[in-house]
Amino acid sequence: MDHKSLDAWNVSVELSVDIYSLTDKFPKVELFGLVQQIRRSAISIPSNIAEGCARSSAKETLRFLYIALGSLAELETQIIIASKLGYIKDEFIVNEKITKVKQLILGLIRYLISV
């Protein structure tokens, strides 16, 4: 399975780019705290999708898709925290993309389980 052809991978890459732009506006004091953590979580999502697709079995692919889901949950939590701290004015756009990525990953998981 080529990860670059998957909507889950493509949308999660877009999300990562959005997150980098968003966190550029955070206070400098957060550079090695929340900014770094949010960026790591965001990058982990497409990276784990790609790594899972490079594996030889559906079982291994599923493991990495579940890791990607975990990173997505981390990211969602960190966005909520950043919003409550006042670093994000409108989290709706990011949350919309997070929801989309979650649906796409869950769709891949359902497909692999059914095969």
From TrEMBL:
Q: Which InterPro entries match?
A: 23S_rRNA-intervening_sequence, 23S_rRNA_IVS_sf
SUPFAM superfamilies membership: IVS-encoded protein-like
- Signal peptide location in the record? none
Q: What is this protein called?
A: Four helix bundle protein
Q: Which organism is it from?
A: Tenuifilum thalassicum
